[in-house]
Amino acid sequence: MKKIVILLGVLVVLVAAGFGVHEVSSSQKKESKTIVVGSQGSDYQIWQHIAKSQEAKEAGLTIQVKEITDGVQLNKATADGSVDVNAFQSYSYFKAYNSQDKKQPLAALGTTYLEPLGIYSEKYTSLSELPDGATVAIANNPANTARGLLLLQDAGLIKLSDDFDALSGVEKVKENPKHLVFKQIDDTTGPRVLKSVDAVLISNTVALDGGLNVLKDSLFHEKVNQRTKNNINILATAEKNKNNENFKKLVKLYHNQAIQNYIKKDFGGTKIAVDKPISYLEK
């Protein structure tokens, strides 16, 4: 009987120790979980840099960057959990996606930057020089068409109707004093059509690929304000993960000064940092 009691005691100790090891192992695994950040284009480059940075190590974050070039597929991968957080989309793109896929909505974690849309010309050095009947090339997809028209309105070239919205087109141009002629193009071809039109609206990503710096080479470009808030880029995750503290740390990490210095140097200051609460976008 005494031997049985001793054996039982040893078994209890071993089992308890086993549970203890399991708990420690699980805890360590949980703490060291790799955050998968899905991205594309220049954002993919930025997050590769962030993942390898000393700042990420100091924040206690292990980051793996996955490239998915299709925006819809990247959002779906985030919604189903194969990607934890994504970094590629504007707030307007995010809202449009959520309106179409209400079963697996995404949540915005925080803001990153504004890449200004610019008006460029090889024929003129200022907007005032644009002649009557000037041809202006503008993106042919709804979201970017609307964004371009809003920029032209901010530049004082046109006036839009009161019911203009994020998917409106040139039919909503209410006043066009210079009688601008709008030529709709694939927005990736902007730099290539510069010589054949009077002016062209080019997104910053495309402009950079074409060797243009929106802050130096455009005649007019977007500024950070309430009119451009929908164009501000964000970090997004699945709705169920919106309170994950490690995911939230990515926003703070992005705005770390050393990281911002790298982005400013590598992209010529054209990714304008926007460190605002999500409530700023929701107003």
From TrEMBL:
* Compartmental location: Membrane
A single Pfam family it belongs to is Lipoprotein_9
Span-the-membrane segments of this chain are none
InterPro entries from the entry? Lipoprotein_NlpA
Superkingdom is Bacteria
Q: Name one GO cellular component term.
A: membrane
Q: What topology does the record note for this protein and the membrane?
A: Lipid-anchor
Which controlled-vocabulary keywords does the entry list? Lipoprotein, Membrane, Palmitate, Signal
Q: Does the keyword rRNA-binding apply?
A: no
Tell me its family.
Answer: Belongs to the nlpA lipoprotein family.
Q: What is this protein called?
A: Lipoprotein
Q: What is the lineage of its organism?
A: Bacteria, Bacillati, Bacillota, Bacilli, Lactobacillales
